[in-house]
């Protein structure tokens, strides 16, 4: 058995930013247009007018101040309200692969290894831009990696579940060096015309290199253990899929084909589930909450993280103990906890413990207990 270690991470951040004010202005223009178009039905009481969104609500309810996206123009155009991305030919890399190459190149440089040394590529994300061939195999080809590659999707927990799969293979010896990459194009999947959720997501890509600790060229984080759990819930759901044209109504742009959630229920049910999961995980490893130097939590909602941090540490965590990045990135699905880890881990001292933890649709929770070397 070998000890798996994280030796490098990388983040691709799209250049385009949408602030809350810009988002709200576009949404309100859309709502006004729809209300004008449906004025008669609204006046007759057959339809409800769309209410305005507000930046104050968004910040207060979520902690989000802005999000990075691949295409700001389409999202902010009240006549479009979704990203518009160039159609690529089958002979050029897809959008997810392009994002992945940037993040992987940074992670490989940090680890000090060449892509040709990688023998496992896992593309773990909430949405794949196509069904097959696997996006991971295209990334493997474009990177020049060896071995094998596959896609996996556990929504917001895709990254931690991917880390568990890679770490287990490194541990057993079936793989020597792996990269887990999370290209999250949440803007393509979000319903920007729905006031309840239009502010939640952003785009990003993260990558994590995992190898045997004995192969590490510099400082690294030993993966002490991983723990994954799932429990079925319809509270975060998306009904898109290849069966859509087989449905009798023939509608291809139904509301439930984009992101749907019951946010209040998610908040209430997931917070205790995650806290209990993290506490059971560290206890099983003989690590006391006081010994945790840092929590790199999933980045969906600031209050949610405040509750979880308090429950796990038994006190209010300092900002330094539980860094948030959601104010700048919004929820980037599986990539959020990895962005936090990538940006806020270099300062840990040898012997320090920390936990990466993601949670979301499924429900799913994944935690990775790390020790700095
Ligand atoms: N502007 C102004 N007012 C608003 C707005 C708005 N934009 N939206 C709602 N309101 C109003 C509501 O109408 C309501 O009014 P009233 O009290 O009169 O009925 C009031 O504000 C409160 O509304 P909510 O109850 O909805 O507000 P909350 O305080 O619950 O906050 C949140 C909403 C922020 C969504 C919160 O519930 C939350 O963060 N919940 C947790 C969500 C979460 O973590 N989800 C995880 C999903 S991600 C995942 O698993 C991956 C999925 C796959 C990726 C998808 C890619 C796109």
Question: What key attributes describe this structure?
Answer:
single chain, 22% strand, 373 residues, alpha+beta, Beta-ketodecanoyl-[acyl-carrier-protein] synthase, two-stranded antiparallel ribbon, Peroxisomal Thiolase, Chain A, domain 1, globular, nine-stranded mixed beta sheet, binds octanoyl-coenzyme A
CATH architecture of the domain at 222-372: 3-Layer(aba) Sandwich
Q: How are helices and strands ordered from N to C?
A: EEHHHEHHEHEHEEEEEHEHHHEE
Gyration radius (Cα, Å) is 21 Å
Strand neighbour order, sheet with most strands: 5-4-6-7-1-8-13-12-11
Q: Give the helix/strand class.
A: alpha+beta
Uncertain regions spanning at least 5 consecutive residues: none
CATH topology of the domain at 222-372: Peroxisomal Thiolase, Chain A, domain 1
* Straight-line distance between termini: 19 Å
Average pLDDT taken over every residue? 96
Largest sheet: 9 strands, mixed
Q: Ions, cofactors, ligands: which are bound?
A: octanoyl-coenzyme A
Instruction: Identify the CATH class of the domain at 222-372.
Output: Alpha Beta
Tell me the strand percentage band. 15-25%
Work out the helicity level. 25-40%
Secondary structure: number of strands = 13
Summed up, the helix count is 11
Shape call: globular
CATH superfamily of the domain at 222-372: Thiolase/Chalcone synthase
Concise synopsis of the structure shown:
By secondary structure, the protein is an alpha+beta fold.
Task: Explain what the structure shows.
This protein is 33% helix and 22% strand. It is an alpha+beta fold and 373 residues long. It has a domain at 222-372: Peroxisomal Thiolase, Chain A, domain 1, CATH 3.40.47.10. The strands form three sheets. Strands 5-4-6-7-1-8-13-12-11 form a nine-stranded mixed sheet. The protein has a two-stranded antiparallel sheet with strand order 2-3. Helix 5 packs across helix 6 (135-143) and helix 8 (263-284) packs parallel to helix 9 (302-313). Bound molecules: octanoyl-coenzyme A (CO8). Octanoyl-coenzyme A binds at residues 53-54, 57-58, 61-62, 126, 155-156, 186, 189-190, 195-196, 199, 201, 236, 259, 261, 263-264, 266-267, 300-301, 304, 331, 333, 360-361. It holds the Pfam family ACP_syn_III. Residues 283-371 form the Beta-ketoacyl-[acyl-carrier-protein] synthase III C-terminal domain.
């Amino acid at each position: 058995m070998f000890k798996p270690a994280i030796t490098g991470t990388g983040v691709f951040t799209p250049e385009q930013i949408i602030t809350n004010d810009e988002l709200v202005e576009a949404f309100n223009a859309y709502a006004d247009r729809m209300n004008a178009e449906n004025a008669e039905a609204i006046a007759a009481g057959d339809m409800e007018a769309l209410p305005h969104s507000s930046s104050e609500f968004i910040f207060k309810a979520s902690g989000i101040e802005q999000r990075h996206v691949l295409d700001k123009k389409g999202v902010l155009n009240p006549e479009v309200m979704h990203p518009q991305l160039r159609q690529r030919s089958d002979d050029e890399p897809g959008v997810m692969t392009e994002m992945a190459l940037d993040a992987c190149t940074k992670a490989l440089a940090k680890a000090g290894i060449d892509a040709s040394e990688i023998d496992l590529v896992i593309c773990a994300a909430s949405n794949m831009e196509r069904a097959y061939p696997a996006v991971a195999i295209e990334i493997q080809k474009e990177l020049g990696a060896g071995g094998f590659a596959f896609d996996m999707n556990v929504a917001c927990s895709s990254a931690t579940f991917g880390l568990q799969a890679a770490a287990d293979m490194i541990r057993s010896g079936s793989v020597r060096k792996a990269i887990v990459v999370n290209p999250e194009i949440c803007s393509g999947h979000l319903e920007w015309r729905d006031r309840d959720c239009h502010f939640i997501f952003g785009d990003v890509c993260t990558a994590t290199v995992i190898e045997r600790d004995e192969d590490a060229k510099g400082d690294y984080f030993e993966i002490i253990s991983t723990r994954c759990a799932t429990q079925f819930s319809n509270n975060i759901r998306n009904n898109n899929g290849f069966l859509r044209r087989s449905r009798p109504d023939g509608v291809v742009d139904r509301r439930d084909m984009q992101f749907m959630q019951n946010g209040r229920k998610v908040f209430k049910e997931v917070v205790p589930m995650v806290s209990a999961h993290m506490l059971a995980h560290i206890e099983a490893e003989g690590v006391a909450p006081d010994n945790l130097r840092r929590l790199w939590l999933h980045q969906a909602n600031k209050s949610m993280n405040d509750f979880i941090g308090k429950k796990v540490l038994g006190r209010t965590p300092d900002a330094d103990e539980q860094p948030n990045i959601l104010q700048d990135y919004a929820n980037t699905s599986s990539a959020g906890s990895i962005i936090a880890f990538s940006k806020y881990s270099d300062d840990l001292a040898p012997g320090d413990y920390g936990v990466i933890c993601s949670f979301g649709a499924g429900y799913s929770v994944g935690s990775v207990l790390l020790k700095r070397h």
